[in-house]
């Protein structure tokens, strides 16, 4: 019995380094962040002073609204385009599928400052497409402002699509050819096949991917900072401004803003888990 317990304890030894990393680099900083967010900057007392300040200051309110709006819209557009791209990849030949997957891997890693610079070259004030729009009198290209909310939305949608497609591809591999054959035997049209058979079975994966995209856009920082710096109200940019760039570091407000960002991501994850379980339950009942 003692030997069995000893072997069990030895089996947990490889987990110790990982557990130490999680505690030192994730849990302790998170606890410190939560503690600093509860200490008022002005009063020095423990309470909700920083959170009240956030939800009553127009700049912070706008930052939260803009972050949620851009994250949600870019996730919805990204998941829609990714669904069509994943369907194309699923139905393509093996050679074309491999090449398409390789392209997705390359574009999904092209983000941050290099992505912002690429869009500046294409659609900035003196970008290639902007100059082409002026020459050809195309108002959409000529008047498009990359350094605005619409510009951020476009860039966010760009880096959401490859990630969403890669996440949806394994779900499409679960589609069985027999489903289409059974649908044809029952005289079901393409609309019935996709919206009554395929999409309900893919719904848990779609909702899970949507949650990942929302969190990915909500926490994105490098691309947004390279494009607009602090000239556009975003939650991630406001957090950074409290730790650098100001005359005085404001850890209290920065910690509270970071906790709001974390709570938004947790709320999105919990809502996704609930909807995913309901979708999976409905699929099992069917």
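^ structure tokens above, recovered residues below v
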């Amino acid at each position: 019995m003692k030997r069995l317990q000893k072997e069990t304890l030895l089996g947990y030894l490889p987990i110790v380094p990982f557990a130490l990393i999680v505690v030192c680099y994730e849990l302790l900083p998170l606890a410190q962040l939560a503690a600093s967010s509860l200490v008022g900057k002005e009063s020095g007392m423990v309470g909700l002073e920083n959170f009240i300040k956030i939800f009553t200051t127009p700049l912070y309110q706008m930052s939260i609204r803009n972050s949620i709006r851009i994250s949600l819209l870019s996730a919805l557009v990204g998941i829609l385009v990714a669904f069509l791209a994943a369907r194309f990849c699923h139905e393509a030949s093996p050679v074309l599928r491999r090449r398409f997957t390789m392209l997705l891997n390359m574009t999904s890693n092209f983000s941050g400052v290099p992505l912002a610079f690429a869009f500046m070259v294409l659609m900035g004030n003196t970008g290639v497409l902007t100059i082409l729009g002026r020459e050809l009198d195309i108002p959409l290209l000529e008047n498009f402002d990359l350094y605005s909310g619409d510009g951020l939305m476009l860039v966010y949608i760009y880096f959401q699509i490859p990630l969403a497609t890669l996440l949806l591809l394994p779900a499409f591999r679960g589609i069985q050819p027999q489903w289409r054959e059974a649908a044809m035997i029952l005289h079901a049209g393409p609309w019935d096949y996709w919206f009554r058979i395929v999409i309900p079975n893919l719904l848990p994966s779609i909702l899970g991917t949507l949650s990942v995209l929302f969190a990915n856009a909500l926490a994105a920082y490098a691309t947004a900072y390279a494009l607009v710096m602090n000239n556009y109200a975003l939650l991630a940019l406001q957090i950074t401004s409290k730790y650098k760039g100001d005359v005085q570091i404001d850890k209290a407000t920065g910690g509270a803003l970071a906790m709001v960002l974390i709570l938004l991501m947790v709320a999105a994850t919990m809502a996704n888990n609930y909807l995913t379980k309901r979708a999976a339950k409905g699929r099992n009942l069917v």
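The CA atoms of residues 179 and 185 lie 10 Å apart.
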